[in-house]
Design a protein that fits this description.
The complex is a heterodimer of chains A (302) and B (322).
Chain A: H1 2-44, H2 50-53, H3 67-98, H4 103-115, H5 120-134, H6 141-165, H7 169-177, H8 182-193, H9 195-211, H10 214-218, H11 252-260, H12 265-299
Helix pairs in contact in A: 1-12, 3-6, 3-9, 3-11, 5-6, 6-9, 7-8, 9-12, 11-12
Chain B: H1 26-72, H2 75-80, H3 96-127, H4 130-141, H5 148-166, H6 175-199, H7 203-211, H8 216-227, H9 229-245, H10 248-253, H11 271-280, H12 288-321
The chains are: A mainly alpha (302), B mainly alpha (322).
């Protein structure tokens, strides 16, 4: 009798110990995250000012700013979004709704799954060979934007497919029964119902793209850009110009990398301030994505 | 079905107001619709095929540029030489120091991420109350959302000074700090995917174990983990391939000198950091230095490819299991 009781006691203790171990390990992750944010805030917050956001980089740490790099990041994001979103959704719709079970589909599936695991710097090498040299786009915003678009394409595709898959088959059958064509089913039912999931995936992808550094370094983004790309709106007809697409660029992450790799504490403060901007943008995007996902799960019940 | 948007009349008569009424010109409308549907399918197929074009682009660029590289450098020298100095006046082209640097940082990262990630996954899936898990999981996933360049900053200017207090004579650039931070970064890859796999294990198996007198810990390790094994392994493999391909943390914190060593306290250069280092300088297109980054790239690509393929098959098994 006492034997059993001691076994029970031992097993309960074992559970309690593991419970604590789990809490400790989980906290390690969270503590590191907090330490990182606090460290960045302590180093960078004093440097963050209006002047910092509206100045070009400079030889003098106290005068340097991130104007050209946040504008660059924004423009790159625009190119990335306008390439990756339509392409990713279209590919996902094809694979989920149209594709037959054959070798081609299987090949595309394996391929996308493999692309998701390719290191980002390899995308940079591909972009250097294809976009910069073979297609002659040069070291431009459009080349950078397309590079990141290629990089986040698997994320957009996977997210879209998952939300399409979550729509019950009955919805499709009902629409077909009313005489809708496949495209009408996709356009009027499947895409509207999966907007939440797609948006989440796109935001996650974009938040990944905004922090991405390595592939943009390989295609030759600059760390010192003391000018802004040409304005997209001009005063003379045709009023809209796409000249900015061909402009050289810098982005926040590369600016930060440049400053962190310099010796001396002055530029490190700049790096921290840039990192703060970057991380706030990333965390904000992730928070929005988490919120959308949470709301969606609460609202939609098939 | 409950959906926020109320159904519009269009949902029930999709053609109204767009095409002429079916009775007037039934055949042309149908032909037009069929034609349109086929055209759209073609466009969508083209979009899906771009993924193949991307892979083809990656493979052909890597092969083409490194083929020119290997015309200058023998493959034997590439894999056996112990020095990597392509930009010196007397260049040596042995990839070994870079591969070793990559392996050491990866092993340090895995030594952090695999145990921590697995314990977190077990805790979240078997121990944590539902509400806590719903909060902790997305919070932990933020760890992998932080830009890697920020992690590089953190490794160089926060973790390294901290480690220098514990490890005597630790240089400012070292693989240990870069590897540890990289490990923290990939915890969510391990914990989230493993937890998904563990939660996919049917409740019946757990209940069976409880009925036989097992506690949660024994159930987790003797029943849940073996049942979710292929899913957990595939999360490990993803972590390996992330660690091999990670660039900015090692480029910032591990130093950028090729160094043939297995001591993580030393500075060293990884394959990825070398590519960054060369790209920062302005090497002329077509020079041997330019081609060397593609030779390094193809080595990296092959290393991750092996793990990706392994992971793909494991994931397929995992999906078929239940």
């Amino acid at each position: 009798m006492t034997d059993i009781q001691s076994i029970i006691r031992r097993r309960k203790r074992q559970d309690a110990v593991f419970n604590i171990l789990g809490i400790v390990c989980t906290s390690i992750g969270l503590i590191v995250l907090a330490a990182l944010l606090i460290d960045l805030a302590i180093d960078g917050l004093p440097r963050l000012s209006w002047q910092f956001m509206t100045s070009f980089p400079s030889r003098f740490a106290s005068r340097a700013g991130i104007l050209s790099s946040w504008v660059g990041s924004l423009l790159i994001m625009i190119v990335t979004a306008s390439a990756a979103i339509p392409l990713g959704i279209a590919a996902a719709v094809y694979l989920e709704e149209y594709a037959r079970k054959n070798w081609l589909t299987a090949l595309i599936e394996v391929n996308i799954s493999n692309l998701a695991g390719v290191p980002s710097i390899i995308y940079g090498l591909m972009a250097l060979g294809v976009f910069v040299y073979a297609l002659g786009l040069g070291r431009s915003i459009v080349a950078g934007g397309l590079t990141l678009a290629v990089l986040i394409l698997p994320i957009v595709i996977v997210a879209t497919r998952e939300s399409l898959r979550a729509i019950p088959q009955g919805i499709r059958e009902a629409a077909y029964a009313l005489g809708a064509t496949k495209w009408q089913v996709v356009r009027d039912h499947l895409l509207p119902y999966s907007t939440g999931g797609i948006t989440t995936g796109v935001i996650i992808g974009m938040s990944r793209a905004i922090g991405e550094t390595a592939p943009l370094i390989t295609i030759g983004a600059l760390a010192y850009v003391a000018f802004l790309p040409p304005s997209p709106i001009s005063s003379s007809p045709p009023f809209v110009s796409f000249e900015w697409l061909n402009s050289p660029f810098s982005v926040l992450s590369i600016q930060m990398f440049n400053w962190v790799s310099r010796p001396g504490h002055d530029f490190h403060a700049n790096a921290a301030a840039t990192g703060l901007v970057l991380i706030v943008a990333t965390l904000l995007m992730n928070a929005i994505a988490i919120m959308i996902r949470y709301r969606m799960r609460k609202r939609i019940k098939w | 079905m409950q959906q926020g948007a109320s159904p519009t009349p269009r949902d029930f008569s999709p053609d109204q107001g767009k095409e002429p009424p079916v009775s007037v010109a039934q055949i042309p409308v149908r032909a037009w619709k069929q034609w349109r549907d086929r055209a759209i399918e073609f466009v969508l197929l083209a979009a899906a095929l771009t993924s193949i074009a991307i892979t083809a682009g990656i493979v052909s660029v890597l092969i083409y540029e490194s083929a020119t590289f290997f015309r200058h450098v023998s493959f034997v020298e590439f894999v056996t030489d112990t020095m990597w100095t392509p930009l010196f006046s007397e260049p040596r082209y042995g990839i070994m120091p870079l591969v070793l640097g990559t392996l050491v940082t990866t092993i340090v990262a895995l030594a952090v991420a695999l145990p921590l990630g697995t314990i977190v996954a077990v805790y979240l899936s078997e121990f944590a109350p539902f509400r806590l898990r719903e909060i902790l999981k997305p919070l932990l996933e933020l760890l992998s959302a932080v830009p890697t360049v920020v992690y590089g900053y953190f490794a160089l200017l926060f973790v390294t000074p901290l480690l220098q207090k514990i490890v005597p004579n630790l240089p400012a650039f070292n693989m240990l700090s870069a590897g540890i931070v990289m490990g923290i970064m990939i915890i969510p890859y391990v914990s989230s995917l493993s937890e998904d796999a563990m939660r996919a294990v049917p409740m019946l198996l757990r209940e069976g174990a409880y009925a036989l007198g097992a506690n949660r810990t024994i159930t987790a390790f003797k029943v849940v983990i073996p049942a979710a094994f292929s899913g957990i392994m595939s999360s490990y493999i993803l972590a390996v391939s992330r660690a091999i391909g990670e660039t900015m943390i090692v480029a910032i914190a591990a130093g950028m000198q090729p160094n043939l060593t297995i001591d993580p306290r030393q500075p060293a250069e990884t394959i990825t950091a070398y590519i960054v280092q060369v790209s920062l300088g302005d090497l002329p297109h077509g020079s041997i230095g330019y081609q060397s980054i593609f030779a390094a790239g193809i080595t990296l690509f092959c290393m991750t490819l092996v793990f990706n393929i392994l992971g793909y098959f494991l994931r397929r098994r995992f999906r078929e299991a239940y």
